[in-house]
Each structure stands twice: as C-alpha cells, then as structure tokens.
C-alpha cells in the first residue's frame, strides 16, 4: 500500500514478511543484509547514526538516528548524497515499524516523510523506489535469495 499526500511529502508503505521481528531488524540495520536488497548499499545503523555506502565504498548517505528501539522501531534521517542535486536538499526522515503478526509474520511499515524540502528525493524514492527495496527485503528474508532485477 502506498499513500502519497501533499506532493509526495509523506509516503507510507506496508508489507507482510514471513520472518521474526529480530530477523527484520537485523536485515535493515546490518550491511551484510542491506547490500543484498538495497541497491547494493551497505547500511550501518546504530543508536546515533545511519550511514550508507555504495558498492564501491562511496558515501551515499549519513544522518542522525532519532529513535532506536530494537526490534520494533527505527527512525532516522535520510540524505541522498549519491546525487549532487539531491545532496543539496534538506534531510528527510524514514521510520521503520516492525510489528509481529499471526502465523509467523511481521508487518513492516515504512514512512518516509519531511520531504517538503527534498522534492527530488521524494520523486526518486516514491512508488517503485521504496517498493523495490521492500520487495527485495521480503524476498531475501523468505527465500534466502536476493530479488533479481
């Protein structure tokens, strides 16, 4: 499900994944996992910093972590440093909510907001942008294999 309001300033995505909250948390916070589904990005998330490096080691993003509650909630800033124009935009925010559901499932809700000052970033991540990442995450956790594009 995708909800876009006010010219893409708030984007909401939900997916059910057959995995534990701990597995989902590990997959979104460790570079060994993220490199397999997040466009090759090696993302390291910790209590105070969210850092992303591209496959060649280039800095793709760095931002503050606002909320760190493993394995339930991660909220961090988002800066798209891999693109010169997007790098000039204001920092937006991404929230990951992990909720256990019946049948060994988790509901993962991702909200990307505070995009008013980042219209190029908003357009870049909307719709297929986040959905490809979340589909890749789901596929990797459920099958052990990355999603091929």
UniProtKB/TrEMBL annotation:
Q: Source organism's superkingdom?
A: Bacteria
Instruction: List the Gene3D superfamilies hit by this protein, alphabetically.
Output: 3.30.530.20
Query: Which residue range or ranges hold the Activator of Hsp90 ATPase homologue 1/2-like C-terminal domain?
Result: 18-142
Q: Which family does it belong to?
A: Belongs to the AHA1 family.
**Protein name as catalogued:** Uncharacterized protein YndB with AHSA1/START domain
- Organism the protein comes from: Actinoallomurus bryophytorum
């Amino acid at each position: 499900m995708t909800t876009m309001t006010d010219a893409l300033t708030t984007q909401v995505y939900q997916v059910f994944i057959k995995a534990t909250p701990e597995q989902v948390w590990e997959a979104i916070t460790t570079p060994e996992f993220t490199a397999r589904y997040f466009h090759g990005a090696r993302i390291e998330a910790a209590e105070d910093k969210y850092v992303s490096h591209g496959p060649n080691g280039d800095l793709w993003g760095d931002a503050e972590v606002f909320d760190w509650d493993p394995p339930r909630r991660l909220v961090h800033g988002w800066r798209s440093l891999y693109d010169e124009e997007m790098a000039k935009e204001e920092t937006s925010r991404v929230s990951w909510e992990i909720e256990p559901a019946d049948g060994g499932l988790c509901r993962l809700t991702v909200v990307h907001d505070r995009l008013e000052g980042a219209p190029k970033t908003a357009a870049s991540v909307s719709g297929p942008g986040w959905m490809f990442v979340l589909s890749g995450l789901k596929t990797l956790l459920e099958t052990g294999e990355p999603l091929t594009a």
